[in-house]
Structures are given as structure tokens and as C-alpha cells.
Predict the structure.
Amino acid sequence: MRNYDGKEYRYKSSDFLKSKGIKILSNYLKFQPCKKGLFYDISLYAGGTGVHDKVSAKFVVEPSSWENIRKYFVLQTPEQSAKHPEWDEDFDRLVDREEQSGSPISAASTFIKSQKKDFQSVVDDITQIYFIEWSDVNSWSVFWGNEENINFLSFDQG
């Protein structure tokens, strides 16, 4: 149960005591990522203006990482998101594709670049990008990565 006390709670991989931050991150991911090479920054707020949660992470790929992510989340590539019969407009608004004439991948890459933390990987030509289905401007999550690292961003406002 969350405290609606109007305080922001921060957890970072640089904290001396990491167990609470790793537990919160694992709850978001629905599995515990490898602790070696794990970076995260979590901000949780609940109060009079509602809930404002921001979660950022980067972790080393293990053989089960992508499998776990696909098991727990319905994922869509930027191309699939832009063609989704019911969700395409929300996706376009989220990544600001309405204002751009570029490809869904280009818009998603620009969106990630504008939201990511310094410790997270940049998007390049071999990066896989997956949004959690039904992400919109108020509540969204995205995974991106390659054979070495997976990055995660989540935002929830309500």
C-alpha cells in the first residue's frame, strides 16, 4: 500500500542500501534483473496532486531477460504500435509523431533520447525497441536494448 503523504521517494543504484530500490524495480519489471551492471533511478510520489512515478533502469542481458519481459508484458515495436487499429493515435501522440513526418522508429528514438537517463544506452541501428501496449501520455513504458544491455523507462501519472 502506498503512502499518500505528498513526499517524493527516491531510489538510485548509487545508494548505499540497495535492497528497497531493487525490490521496487523488480516489482515493475515482474522479475529481478541481474545485479551486476544494474543501474536504476526511481522516483515515486503520491499525494494531493495524484501519483507521479518515474522508473529508469539499465541491466545486463541474461539468457532469460527478453523471455521474461515478453512473458509478463504485451510488447509492440514502434512499427506495430503505429499500425495498431485501436492504439495508433495514442502511440503517435506519445512519441510526438503527429508533429513529425518521420518513421515510427525515428519518432520512438527521439522520444527515448528525450526521456532517458545518462546511464542508459542510446538508440542505434541495432537497438530493439518495444513499448508496452496501450502506453499513452499519462502512463507509458518502453524497453530498448541489444545483446548486451536492456534499458527500461516507465512513467505513470494519475
Q: What stands out?
A: The first strand starts at residue 8 and ends at 12.
